[in-house]
């Protein structure tokens, strides 16, 4: 295995300056897309992305697949059910084989340990398309969206992020963990409010500086003064058996208009989607003027194109 391979398994796998580069490249790639101008850095030679889904997906699949084709590459799509992964072929063997045939692998699976094992035996870069613990591609897109909507006077992407307050209302899940990693790395604060028993765990989240987040019992207090309010489903994929228990535990953790009123007047609302109106978010918030969820979803593709470009080609001017 080559030691020069860069994987993207957690948000902290890249440094702050690399994120600044990715946000600039994502903006360039998005401008090209909007102008209907081709940008195909992978066309010569062809590059192939293997996508492995062990959980359902709409945005992650479409954004990676469309993005790769738009950049001139190709895609192979595998699921647990239609590959030998579902018949207990060891993940290490799958990694050895798949990574001999493609240039890049994206995996959506359950335990983070599984993607780490795949990456350890892969000859090519591996991207985390969501695990139980992390969802780094989503936060990459969310921060790119924040930079687009609230650019810094300096024009520098990281200046638009540094010092901001992000309110996280809901489950201490893969999204919450990734927000904490981003806050530690890029210098902003997350106000976290979860029901008892669903708190974030800084060790699991992989952060060492607990100053990057503050815990609030009352979700309204978490939203007070926030630049961005964000939430996610009460029950993540893989936890469906807890659905009813969670529905009761999370009843007070619905982002509603009253919570948005406590945030800054120009606060944005984000949700990684899929959303459940009337559960984690009120319809008037997700469908209201502060919501940027559709741009956030579209930005998955632009941000991930920048990520794939970086992992395959390095810094492109
Ligand atoms: N936000 C997100 O990852 O969506 P999908 O589950 O549809 O891929
Ligand atoms: N936390 C959610 C995110 C879905 C994109 C889940 O893991 O199901």
Automatic annotation (TrEMBL):
Gene Ontology CC annotations of this record: cytoplasm
Aspartate/ornithine carbamoyltransferase carbamoyl-P binding domain sequence ranges: 6-148
Catalytic reaction equation(s): carbamoyl phosphate + L-ornithine = L-citrulline + phosphate + H(+)
Subcellular location: Cytoplasm
SUPFAM superfamilies registered for this protein in UniProt: Aspartate/ornithine carbamoyltransferase (SSF53671)
Residues bound to carbamoyl phosphate: 57-60, 84, 108, 135-138, 272-273, 300
PANTHER family referenced in this protein's UniProt entry, alphabetically: ORNITHINE CARBAMOYLTRANSFERASE, MITOCHONDRIAL (PTHR45753), ORNITHINE TRANSCARBAMYLASE, MITOCHONDRIAL (PTHR45753:SF3)
Gene Ontology biological process terms from the UniProt entry: citrulline biosynthetic process; L-arginine biosynthetic process via ornithine
Domain of life: Bacteria
Its biological purpose: Reversibly catalyzes the transfer of the carbamoyl group from carbamoyl phosphate (CP) to the N(epsilon) atom of ornithine (ORN) to produce L-citrulline.
Family (UniProt): Belongs to the aspartate/ornithine carbamoyltransferase superfamily. OTCase family.
Pathway(s) it belongs to: Amino-acid biosynthesis; L-arginine biosynthesis; L-arginine from L-ornithine and carbamoyl phosphate: step 1/3
GO molecular function: amino acid binding; ornithine carbamoyltransferase activity
EC number per UniProt: 2.1.3.3
Alphabetical list of Pfam families matching this protein: OTCace, OTCace_N
Keywords, comma-separated and alphabetical: Cytoplasm, Transferase
InterPro entries from the UniProt entry: Asp/Orn_carbamoyltranf_P-bd, Asp/Orn_carbamoylTrfase, Asp/Orn_carbamoylTrfase_sf, Asp_carbamoyltransf_Asp/Orn-bd, Orn/put_carbamltrans, OTCase_ArgI
Signal sequence interval, chain numbering: none
Primary localisation category: cytoplasm
All copies of domain Aspartate/ornithine carbamoyltransferase Asp/Orn-binding, residue ranges: 163-311
Top enzyme class: transferase
Residues involved in L-ornithine binding: 174, 232, 236-237
Name of the molecule in the record: Ornithine carbamoyltransferase
């Amino acid at each position: 295995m080559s030691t020069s391979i860069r994987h993207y398994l957690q948000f902290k796998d890249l440094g702050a300056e690399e994120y600044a580069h990715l946000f600039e490249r994502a903006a360039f790639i998005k401008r090209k897309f909007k102008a209907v101008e081709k940008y195909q850095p992978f066309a010569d030679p062809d590059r192939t992305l293997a996508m492995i889904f062990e959980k359902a997906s709409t945005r992650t699949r479409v954004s990676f697949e469309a993005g790769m084709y738009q950049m001139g590459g190709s895609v192979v799509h595998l699921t647990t059910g239609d590959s030998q992964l579902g018949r207990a072929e060891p993940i290490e063997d799958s990694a050895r084989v798949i990574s001999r045939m493609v240039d890049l692998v994206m995996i959506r699976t359950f335990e983070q340990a599984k993607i780490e094992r795949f990456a350890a035996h892969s000859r090519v870069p591996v991207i985390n398309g969501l695990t139980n613990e992390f969802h780094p591609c989503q936060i990459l897109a969310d921060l790119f969206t924040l930079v687009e909507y609230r650019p810094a006077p300096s024009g520098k992407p990281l200046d638009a992020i540094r010092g901001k307050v992000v309110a996280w209302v809901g489950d201490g899940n893969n999204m919450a963990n990734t927000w904490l990693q981003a806050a530690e790395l890029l210098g902003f604060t997350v106000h976290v409010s979860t029901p008892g028993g669903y708190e974030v765990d800084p060790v699991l989240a992989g952060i060492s500086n607990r100053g990057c987040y503050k815990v609030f019992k009352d979700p309204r207090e978490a939203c007070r003064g926030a630049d961005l309010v964000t939430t996610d489903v009460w029950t993540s994929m893989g936890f469906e058996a807890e659905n009813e228990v969670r529905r009761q535990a999370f009843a007070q953790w619905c982002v509603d208009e009253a919570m948005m009123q406590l945030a800054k007047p120009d606060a944005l609302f984000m949700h990684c989607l899929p959303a459940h109106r009337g559960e984690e978010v009120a319809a008037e918030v997700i469908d209201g003027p502060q919501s940027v969820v559709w741009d956030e979803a579209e930005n998955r593709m632009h941000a991930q194109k920048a990520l794939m470009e970086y992992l395959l080609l390095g810094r492109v001017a």
